[in-house]
Each structure stands twice: as C-alpha cells, then as structure tokens.
Amino acid sequence: MTPRVLKKRASKDWAFLPAISAAALAVAGLALAMPAAAQGSARANGPVEVRLDPSRPGPVIDRHVFGQFAEHLGTGIYDGVWVGRDSPIPNVRGIRSDVVAALKALKVPNVRWPGGCFADEYHWRDGIGPADKRRVQINSNWGGVPEPNSFGTHEFMDFAEQIGADAYISVNIGSGTAAEAAAWIEYMTAEKDTTLARERAANGHPAPWKVPILGLGNENWGCGGAMSATHYVEEMKRFAAFTRNYNPAQREGAARMKRIAVGWDSDKLDYTEEVMKAWKDRVYSWDIEGVSLHKYTTGGWPPHLPSTGFGHDQYAEAIADTLTMDSLIAKQSAIMDKYDPEKKLLIAVDEWGAWLEPAPGSNPGFLQQQNSMRDAIIAALNVNIFARHAERVKIANIAQMVNVLQAMILTDGGKMVLTPTYHAFRMYVPFQDARVVPVAFDAGQYVNGKHRLPRVDAMAAKATDGTLWLSLVNVDPARPATFRLPGFASASGEVLGAPKVDSVNTFAAPATVAPRAVSARAKGGVLSIELPPHSVSVVKVMP
Ligand code: AHR
C-alpha cells in the first residue's frame, strides 16, 4: 500500500503575529494602552518586566486542553501502549506499565481514540470479544500494515482508567452508519438490562463506562469522506441525535457528554460556518457542545522540517508557524460568535502539534519523529495561546501520545524515554483548571531572516489551591532573558532547557533535556528570574 502521508494542503495563513498577541493584550486589559509600535520595542537584551493582576482572575483553563490523542497509527498503540498480556514487557492486562506510570504523572484529562483518519474506517465490533476472533484488517491510512484489533473498546477503556483519563471517543461518520455509532455508545454506556449491556458484561465489563466526550466524525472534508460542509452537517445531525449516552451519571449538567462536530483546519472555514448555522436553527432532537479545529505545525506542506539536526533558521520557521494557532482560533471564534455570542459552544483543538519529516529509516506512514527542545517550546507556546482563548478553547489534544508526531513518550521494545514535550506537559500540570490571571509584558522581538517573533512569552494563572503560577518562555535561541516581577518575593519551580534548540532525549542519553530547579533572586521588592536561551519554565510565585 502507498503510505498515506501527503494529504493536506499548505496553510494559507502565514501572517506574522504581533510580538504580543491581541488575545494576550485583551487578557492583560492593555489592548488600547499599548501602541502597536511599542509591542516589539523591548530592549534587545534588557530585562522583561512582567506585571500580574491576581485580583482579577479570568476564565478557567479547562484541564481538558491538556488532552492527548492516541490513534491506531504506527507504533502509537501497538508497542507504545499495548504489548499484550503475554509480553515480557511488564504490563497490566496487556497495557505497558512504564508508559502508564509516566502518563499518570501528566494527569492526562482525556484521550481521543481511535483516530484520526483511522476512526473514519473503524468498526467497533471488530475490536470486541475473544482476542483470537477479532478481525484483522489493513490500516489503509497508516502504512498499509495489518491492524489486529487486539486493542479495542475494552482495552482502551482499561487504559484510560489505568492512567486516570476520560474517554474521548470519535465515531465513524466517514464509512459508518448512525445506527452503528448509536449501538457503540449504547454498548459502552447502557446501565439497564439491554442486549448490548449484556454483551458488554459477557465481554468482561458489567458496569457501564462513561463517555464524557464524543467526536462526531473526523476531518470529513478529507479522509472522512471528502464531504462538502452542507453534506457533513446533514450527516452530523443524525449522529448527534442518535448517539445517546445512557449512563445515569452522565445525564445532567456538567457531566453530560459533550458532542464535538468537525470544524475546520487552516483553510476549511466553511465547515465551521455551516455547523454553526445549523446549530443556531437546531430543533429539539439534536444538539452539539463544541466544534473542532485542527492545526499542525509543519512549516508548510508536506511536512519537511527535520526533527533533529536543525539550526536557528528552521527553528524560527517552526515557531512562526506554530504561533499562527492564535489567529486560527481567533478566526474560528469570530465565526462562532456570530451564531453563539454567549459562547455556549466550545472549541476543541483536538489535533495539534509538530508534524515533521519522518525519522530516517522509518516507515513514512508511521509518522515517527524525534522530539527536541524546540518541540517543548512549541508545546508551551500553544498551551499559552489556549489559555488566552480560555473562554472558547476548552478541549485540546496534542498529536500524538506515544511514538507518533509530537509524542510525550518514545518506546523501542522494552525501552522508554520521556521527550522534552513530556516534561513541558508535566511542568504545566498546575495550570489544569486554574484561572487565567491578567499578565502584561513587552514581548520584544527575536528576528531571524523574514521572521519577526516574540522574544519571550508569559502566561499566569491562579491554581485551584489558590497559588499563583507563571509560565515563562524564552523563545530566543541565543540570548538569555531576565524576567522582573515587581511585588513578588520568592519563586519556586522548574526550568526546562537544553544545550541546543535541537537537543533531544534518546534511549542512550535520556536526560539531555530535563527540568531543573529554577533560581530566583529578590531585591528591592522585585523578583528576578533569569532563563537560558530557548527554555520553558513554570514557577509558583509568592508576594
Ligand atoms: O494525526 C495524524 C492525522 O492527522 C489524523 O489521523 C488526521 O485526523 C489528521 O489529518
């Protein structure tokens, strides 16, 4: 089979962001106070003054923006998560224990499964029942390899439970039927004595599961059936109406299942428009709670940026691309605002991350790549953007969890290594469900060729326990940055740095990019924190 890798169009949206995004300024309450010309005016190497206003906490950074994505793709599931019960690799019911332990430390809020494009061809009955009776099919999207269906609904739910995450299930609108999807959700959630609930019990799980998030299709403008937006909307409405969640614990209020319709990626605005128009005119029998947005950091299509051995030029190219996430969310929000000014519907950025050149020697259909210090910076910048759009962006899923694209974890047989992106996600745990705190700073400029990028980034939030946390990113690959915080006396936290922007962790050298304690000094009522070039830090600050 031809590996399916070159399917997307290049994003047309390559506009540079201002040094401080409009959203950052709005959160800071400075939109009118700071002239555009001043936004790039920070002294080239001077300290960056950061002012926080904890007395005015903003919206909650929903913990679900720290979600993961696990598709049947390459070694993302098989080898990465599932090794089988008889494997010499330590496992619990076939799920590898080292990966579970590492993911538990991230407090993963949800995992999106089974795809992606794989979901557009997934038939859930292939993945239940006795292991030796499961249908072996071809994974036509990803490498054309046999898909054994050994990891199906029960195994996924077990995995989600082992790491403490919610299930985000994507149903098949591309090649499936509404009846098939409805039966799957009933199989998972029915509490009453129905035929499907009995079948679930016979397969080993008498109690109903919860399905807190349901994806109504995936990229149906592309791998999900190449549907026009209007055609997709007609299909989606039927799926939204008939995929009923029967779990009694999910019938009311915040616990109700959230249904996410397909929105756009960089150039598919019509999907969001049509979905929102239909939602505005909806009748009692169907509803949705959110619309998706997909955006990968590629530097242009096809993905060509290397995952190792790159310099500052390609670093700047990737950072410039990743920062367009801000304007993409703003555009999607503006469309949604027309139909939903009260912001009842959320945005789920349920695929995002760096999509780079395949690792040398790998199957190009497996989307395997190394993960560097640059990728940790990409992760931090994107999460900071989500925080600035916290009123709309309430779900996000980085692609993908293990061994695929911008992974948290890489495995090879029994070996496992944590990537720089993993460390960034672990450091950001205090921001889960924290409330955004207005922060004002002059981001300055880091200039590389045609790219004028912010030299630094900052985001602040009040955690659920009342403590105040700050993310500080030094984007500049060559110059350290000193952050000055008037009114603060001490800080504790971690800085993730590395010798070079392309430094990576390998099985042989797993701690080249690893967090260490941050050092801060207080003098004259001002706290100073010095951060190395190309670094990410997360600190708790105290007055
Ligand atoms: O994450 C890889 C692929 O990217 C997903 O399967 C698809 O939805 C997207 O195009």
Structural description of this entry:
Helix content is 23%, strand content 24%. It has helices at residues 22-28, 97-104, 153-163, 178-189, 195-202, 229-242, 269-280, 312-323, 325-339, 373-388, 420-427, and strands spanning 48-49, 51-52, 67-69, 91-92, 95-96, 110-113, 137-139, 145-147, 166-171, 213-216, 258-264, 290-297, 346-354, 393-399, 409-412, 415-418, 435-437, 439-440, 446-448, 451-453, 456-462, 468-474, 481-486, 490-497, 514-517, 520-523, 526-531, 535-542. Strand 11, helix 7 (269-280) and strand 12 (290-297) form a beta-alpha-beta unit. It is globular and about 70 Å long. Residues 1-42 have low confidence and may be disordered. Bound molecules: alpha-L-arabinofuranose (AHR). Alpha-L-arabinofuranose (AHR) is lined by residues 71, 115-117, 218-219, 351, 399-400, 405.
How are the secondary structure elements laid out?
Blueprint: H1 22-28, E1 48-49, E2 51-52, E3 67-69, E4 91-92, E5 95-96, H2 97-104, E6 110-113, E7 137-139, E8 145-147, H3 153-163, E9 166-171, H4 178-189, H5 195-202, E10 213-216, H6 229-242, E11 258-264, H7 269-280, E12 290-297, H8 312-323, H9 325-339, E13 346-354, H10 373-388, E14 393-399, E15 409-412, E16 415-418, H11 420-427, E17 435-437, E18 439-440, E19 446-448, E20 451-453, E21 456-462, E22 468-474, E23 481-486, E24 490-497, E25 514-517, E26 520-523, E27 526-531, E28 535-542
Parallel strand pairs: 1-23, 3-6, 3-14, 6-9, 9-10, 10-11, 11-12, 12-13, 13-14
Antiparallel strand pairs: 2-18, 4-5, 7-8, 15-16, 17-21, 19-20, 21-22, 22-28, 23-27, 24-25, 24-28, 26-27
Helix pairs in contact: 4-5, 4-6, 6-7, 7-9, 8-10, 10-11
